[in-house]
Write a structure and sequence with these properties.
The complex is a heterodimer of chains A (125) and B (320). The termini of chain A are far apart. The longest helix of chain A is centred in the N-terminal third of the chain and has 19 residues. With 125 residues, chain A is an alpha+beta fold. Helix content of chain A is 21%, strand content 49%. Helices cover 39% and strands 1% of the residues of chain B. In chain B, helix 2 packs across helix 7 and helix 11 packs across helix 13. The longest helix of chain B is centred in the first third of the chain and has 21 residues. The chains are: A alpha+beta (125), B mainly alpha (320). The interface between A and B is medium-sized, with 22 and 25 residues.
């Protein structure tokens, strides 16, 4: 009996330990996509911070700041440009640790969707 | 004999170095040619005004007068906008009458108040200039014409991008000390629901592509119909292109007519437009109610806008 209780306690401790370890947020950092706009090359960068805020940059010019959170492989993202309290959602497909692709799940914000959906972003230092 | 060789060698070296040091290679690309043309009064009727006379480099290629003076000291009718950060724009001039930078580039040359020079005459002058004929030939493989003139000027303007402001540094490089706490609060206000500036001023240059009426048309003292003069649509009366905000702190005065001398005056206007233009026609509903900003919040917004000044112009900030 003692053995069973001890085993259960041990299992509980192990499970709790796993529960307490947050999934690492792979999205934290700066990610860049380059594309052609009106005949010239432009750079789009997203800087996702550990505090749940993010900023977007076109040609290194800041143009948007908002909030985000990740749940498993789904990104929930919002900013006032796209509507107060509105959150778009994207599946984030990571390729190793240095590149990713966003796939829209739901986002009525056309500008954000067109800027991110299905584009490959590479991690920058 | 050895000494003679050494002297001859050193003399030759000095000659070669000094020759290469003083050789002016001149413009080699359309944009470099555009820069030369931008600063050259050859494109004005009196040969006294250049593009740079109104778009002053030291003030982010804008002017610090409410309206600029054109040929024969004629007063313009609208405030000179900055010629910087044009690369991502899709409409030009306060009323958006040009759809491309190439179209825009030629309009002030022909405008009778600004440079007052028919394009035909401008091209005649360039074709009769040994220097320009040679440069156009070398760069475009063509004699100066309307298209390559526009291409050169527009190409130069496209190089005038600024992306090194304290705000960019803070947000891109996570440099928390790049901007003051007040500027950070100002940015939050700008994006938040109280001031909500971001509804119109969004995008890489903080303007957007729309035309809006902020209420500076009343048909009595404020009579510039703006966009409506181009589209002929009554609903466009009093609408103007949303002003870009990069480097805005060094380009006073403000608005299409330069009626506000400082950014603080601009904020005071947006805070309660009725106090300044009580009988506005067609003012955007976003400005229907006073913002009720505190004095500290107004200061925070001004500090945020100052943080949009590219580092190359940092020294200009203290003047205003």
């Amino acid at each position: 009996m003692k053995k069973i209780i001890l085993s259960c306690l041990l299992a509980l401790v192990v499970l709790t330990a796993f529960k307490l370890i947050d999934e690492p947020n792979q999205l934290i950092g700066r990610w860049e996509n380059t594309r052609i706009f009106q005949g010239s090359k432009i750079s789009l960068i997203g800087n996702f911070k550990a505090d749940g805020s993010y900023s977007g940059f076109i040609n290194k010019k800041a143009f948007v700041t908002g909030t985000y959170h990740m749940k498993h492989d789904t990104l929930y993202i919002g900013d006032n440009t796209c509507g107060l309290n509105y959150t778009g959602s994207y599946k984030v497909q990571f390729f190793g640790q240095d590149s990713l692709r966003f796939h829209v799940i739901q986002d009525t914000c056309q500008g954000r969707r067109e800027g991110t959906d299905n584009f490959l972003f590479r991690k920058i230092k | 004999m050895k000494k003679l060789y050494l002297i001859l060698f050193l003399g030759g070296l000095v000659l070669v170095v000094s020759q290469s040091a003083f050789t002016d290679t001149g413009p080699q690309t359309p944009a470099e040619l555009g820069r030369k043309l931008f600063f050259d009064p050859i494109l004005s009727k009196t040969k006294k005004i250049s593009c740079a006379s109104c778009h002053k480099e030291e003030f982010a290629f804008a002017d610090t007068s409410a309206v600029s003076l054109g040929v024969r000291n004629q007063k313009g009718v609208r405030n000179t906008p900055s010629a910087m950060n044009m690369k991502l724009q899709v409409a030009f001039f306060w009323d958006g009458r040009a759809k491309t930078l190439e179209q825009q580039a030629l309009m002030p040359i022909e405008n009778s108040i600004e440079m007052d020079l028919p394009i035909k005459t401008a091209l005649w002058r360039l074709n009769n200039s040994k220097t320009y004929r040679k440069l156009f030939q070398a760069i475009f493989n063509q004699a100066p014409d309307q298209h390559n003139l526009a291409k050169a000027l527009a190409g130069f303007e496209r190089t005038l991008e600024t992306s090194d402001s304290p705000l960019d540094d803070w947000l891109l490089n996570n440099n928390e000390s790049a901007v003051s706490e007040s500027a950070k609060r100002g940015y939050a206000l700008f994006n938040g629901t109280k001031a909500n500036c971001v509804q119109c001023h969004f995008g890489a240059d903080f303007n957007n592509t729309e035309f809006r009426s902020i209420g500076l048309y009343d048909g009595k003292t404020l009579k510039d119909s703006g966009r409506a003069a181009i589209t002929k649509r009554p609903e466009d009366i009093g609408k103007f292109k949303i002003g870009a905000l990069r480097n805005v702190a060094i380009t006073p005065p403000y608005m299409h007519n330069g009626m506000f001398k400082t950014l603080r005056e601009v904020i005071d206007y947006y805070n309660d437009p009725d106090k300044i233009v009580p009988q506005a026609i067609g003012r955007d509903t976003l400005l229907a109610r006073p913002m009720n900003l505190t004095e500290q919040e107004k200061t925070d917004l001004v500090n945020f806008m100052e943080a949009l000044t590219d580092k190359r112009f940092a020294g200009k900030l203290q003047k205003f």
